[in-house]
Write a structure and sequence with these properties.
heterodimer; A: alpha+beta; Sulfite Oxidase, Chain A, domain 2; Immunoglobulin-like; 7 helices; globular; B: mainly alpha; Cytochrome Bc1 Complex, Chain D, domain 2; 9 helices; 6% strand; extended
Chain lengths: 424, 262
């Protein structure tokens, strides 16, 4: 994500704060209307689909979601970037549940568009401070022992537009640069062992085969710990948007180092200080100095429903549903507040809890139309607790763009609408 | 005739770090040995152990296993590597042969770069700004450019070499690459009009913000965020809404109106 993105947004933010008419009551991004009912299909009548044959097998060689699920799509914020080839699209978190993101809905971040790599011409080169430089074909990678791991991937700039205050009205836009899938691939350690890493090596550089040839330095210790050279996502081959045929998986670390269309790994004794790890993906603090190599994504959570794109439709029993994740290990607890962080209650985590993966949490509440300020707060196994936005700003100021894991507040209003708000 | 092999016994493929499984919440020592530091610390411990020798050495020997070689993959030839080995480090390692002057660079820049980045690096539209911005990093509106923010010449050179011009990557000759980099430096008053960039002059370039960065220190400066007993009740005074996303009004709209409470 580029600085231009937040600079543009800042301008818009200031313009808005200066008193742009708040006329757009319908604002709130991508909420679809409840579909009109058709009495012909409702009891006691017999629905059309109960009487007629449907399409036969094979008409949907690769199945698609129901035509009624048009809301569950990636969306963009066109004013963020200069061009769609170097831009981002957002995961529709409001339309999903559980912990696994469907492949076609995983957010995209490309620097020079989607490379379309012919698998026959795919090569992975491994060289530098190794005893034996190697080249692998895709088939060769697939012959090696493989692992299956579920991990989240979050862009370091996720929530980056919210540093100066509530700005984008939808969880898809505030938090949609995260996804969580099951990867299949070869442990990077195993590949490095095939080449023989020399004793003085301390870093690796991963490089993409796209027209940005995206490159990042990664400490060798991480490469030997849990990185995966992955070719499958949720069982099928990676999507082109996610680096087909091969991407690097760097569990718990910022998405930018998960190099897509991976073509080369070079082993060295110091970092490369590439453009992406110096002029971008460094965190500028208030004193004008910047943190570099801030790889780990701190614990974070967000309520995905209710949220601006999924308002509350009925009074009475309702469910808060959300996602939590941490780059430092497992999520052990998520708390939910209905009053803007004054009082908290542990939520129920449902489904599997994996290392450096998303977890799903729920809290049930009875709603009679009162205004609520919904928040969630994640804790991981290292004891790290997701901080408030103000606590983060106190240390980092508002210019750092990246690594905003502050607590999100949604205001649930009397009419069931939900808005992204800032609280103080 | 095929036979069973022990491939499945590779330690990476047998579930890893079983000690993490089932760890009790809060039983972990707070963050000191986790994150990027952990690897370094572990390595330091191992190295110390090596130096001390004696008791520590056998322990190390026990943890080290001989990696299994699968005989899969081919040797990369020098020729193959040369075609892809384009990265350049701050010390100039990896910089190709060639040279280019500010003057030659101006021509390349105006033809290949100015349409997006502006005639003087000021940016056309929302494309990255390359020049100016000095003294803004601590301000409300920091402008990050080659002159104001980049800490290393190699970050500029390596990036242009691999990714620019946008849409026509890796099309510049090495001389053009040196020249256009020199010109961008000149736009930022880092080198004078007569400067010629090459491997020989690489070390003469001093980037204004080279001392502007330090390594991730969150585990120290944000230590307060590790708190195994966060407040649960009456944690703050009554909460006021201080900002509304709808007032900012920059969220993309869907045309359809939503429904409220039924």
């Amino acid at each position: 994500m580029s600085d231009d993105l937040t600079r543009t947004s800042r301008r818009k933010f200031l313009a808005g704060a200066a008193g742009l008419s708040a006329a757009s009551l319908a604002a709130g991004g991508a909420v679809l209307p409840a579909r009109a009912e058709n009495a012909k299909n409702l009891p006691p009548n017999v629905a059309d689909w109960t009487k007629q044959l449907g399409e036969g097998v094979g008409t949907r060689a690769y199945g698609q979601p129901s035509k009624f699920e048009k809301d569950a799509v990636r969306r963009t914020v066109p004013w963020l970037t200069a061009t769609p080839e170097s831009s981002v699209s957002f995961t529709p978190l409001h339309a999903l549940d559980g912990i696994i993101t469907p492949n076609g809905l995983c957010f995209e971040r490309h620097h020079s568009g989607i490379a379309e790599v012919d698998p026959a011409d795919y090569r992975l080169m491994l060289h530098g401070m190794v005893d034996k430089p190697l080249i692998f074909t895709l088939d060769e990678l697939k012959r090696l022992p493989r692992v299956n791991k579920i991990h989240f991937l979050e862009c370091a700039a996720n929530s980056g537009m919210e540093w100066r205050g509530a700005q984008l009205n939808g969880v898809q836009y505030t938090h949609g640069m995260v996804h969580c899938v099951q990867y299949t691939g070869v442990p990077l350690k195993l590949l490095l062992e095939q080449a023989g890493v020399q004793p003085k090596a301390k870093w690796i550089m991963a490089e993409g085969g796209d027209a940005a040839a995206m490159n990042r330095s990664i400490p060798l210790a991480k490469a030997l710990d849990d990185c995966i050279v992955a070719y499958r996502s949720n069982g099928e081959m990676l999507r082109p948007e996610q680096g087909y045929p091969v991407r690097l998986v760097v569990p718990g670390w910022e998405g930018n180092v998960w190099v897509k269309w991976l073509r080369r790994i070079k082993v060295g004794d110091q970092p490369w200080f590439t453009r992406e790890e110096t002029s971008k993906y460094t965190d500028l603090l208030e004193d004008g100095k910047a943190r570099q190599f801030t790889f780990v994504m701190d614990a974070k959570s967000v309520i995905t429903a209710p949220s601006p794109q999924t308002p509350v439709k009925q009074k009475g029993f309702n469910i808060v549903s959300g996602l939590a994740w941490s780059g430092r290990g497992k999520i052990i607890r998520v708390d939910v507040s209905l009053d803007g962080g004054r009082n908290w209650k542990p939520a129920r985590i449902d489904g599997p809890v994996f290392d450096k993966a998303c977890v799903r949490f729920y809290t049930e509440f009875d709603w009679q139309g009162e205004e609520l300020l919904l928040q969630s707060r994640a804790m991981d196994e290292t004891g790290y607790v997701q901080p408030s936005k103000d606590a983060l700003r106190k240390i980092r100021g508002v210019n750092s763009i990246y690594h905003n894991n502050g607590i999100q507040t949604w205001a649930l209003k009397a009419d069931g609408e939900v808005e992204n708000v800032e609280v103080g | 005739m095929s036979k069973w092999v022990k491939a499945i016994r590779h330690p990476e493929v047998l579930g890893r770090r079983p000690s993490l499984e089932g760890r009790r919440p809060g039983s972990q020592r707070p963050f000191i040995l986790r994150g990027p530091l952990r690897g370094h610390l572990r390595m330091m411990v191992l190295l110390t152990a090596l130096f001390i020798g004696g008791l520590a050495a056998p322990a190390l020997a026990q943890t080290k296993t001989t990696p299994r070689l699968y005989g899969i993959g081919r040797a990369a030839t020098a020729d193959q590597i040369a075609g892809w080995d384009i990265d350049v480090r701050p010390d100039g390692q990896g910089a190709p042969a060639g040279k280019g002057s500010v003057k030659e660079g101006e021509k390349v820049y105006n033809e290949r770069c100015a349409a997006c980045h502006g005639e003087f690096g000021e940016s056309a539209g929302r494309w990255p700004q390359l020049a100016q911005g000095k003294g803004t990093l601590a301000s409300h509106d920091p402008v990050k450019t080659v002159g104001s923010y980049f800490a290393h010449l190699s970050s500029v050179f390596d990036y242009i070499r691999r990714a620019m011009p946008f849409g026509d990557a890796q099309s510049l000759s090495n001389d053009e690459l040196y020249a256009v980099t020199a010109y961008v430096l000149n736009l930022n008053d880092i080198v004078d009009d007569k400067f010629v960039l090459s491997r020989k002059t690489w070390g003469q370039v001093k980037m204004p913000n080279q001392g502007g960065f330090y390594d991730d220190d969150r585990e120290k400066t944000e230590k307060a965020f590790w708190n195994s007993r966060p407040c649960m009740k009456d944690c703050r005074p009554p909460v006021k809404i201080t900002g509304h996303a709808q007032a900012v009004d920059v969220t993309p709209d869907d045309k359809d109106k939503k429904g409220g409470v039924e």
